[in-house]
Amino acid sequence: MKKIILVLLLAIAGFSGYAQTYNAITSKNKTYLKTLKGVGYTYKNGVVTLKNNGSYDLGTVSIIAYSKVDSTLFGIALFEEGLEKGARVRAEVYFTSGSGNGVHDVLLKDIDQKNLVLSFDKAVRAIK
After folding, report:
1. Interior CA angle at 91 toward 38 and 32, to 5°?
2. Are 53 and 38 within 8 A, CB to CB?
3. Cα separation, 119 vs 3, whole angstroms
């Protein structure tokens, strides 16, 4: 029985090593923290799903992505249409790579998705 549990734990640990990293919110701004309380997102195959289980309707929200292994890779998912309380929306992540005049679009198949780090970039409450 102990061997079976050990194998299951090792299998789970192996799968978790292939997942993206989600950064916690580091802002000290109380309004920003209240705005994002209850708001979450997930990433899968180039699409971010944003869920608003918070207390406020949202206006613009952006989520950024960068790579642990490619310092020039940058991705952003923009939610500009707003998001009501209790709603869920999806947006594709737009990826670029390079620096200066050498910036170019990157196809999803060319990205090492397991090494992505995602975080909130911006979140604004909707104006009623």
Report:
1. 35
2. yes
3. 38
Cβ-in-10-Å burial (0-12, 13-18, 19+) of 39 comes to: buried
Q: Compute how many other C-beta atoms are within 10 angstroms of the C-beta atom of residue 69.
A: 9
Pairing mode, strands 94-97 and 21-22: unpaired
Question: Is residue 78 exposed (0-12), middle (13-18) or buried (19+ Cβ within 10 Å)?
Answer: middle
- Within a 13 Å sphere around the CA of 122, how many CA atoms are in the beta-carbon half? 12
At 70, list the tokens: 């490619």
Angle formed at CA 87 by CA 81 and CA 89, multiple of 5 degrees: 55
Q: What is the pLDDT of residues 27-68, one digit of tens each?
A: 999 999 999 999 999 999 999 999 999 999 999 999 999 999
Distance CA 58, CA 82 (A): 5
- In contact, 57 and 45? CB cutoff 8 Å: no
Residue 10: φ, ψ to 5°: -65, -40
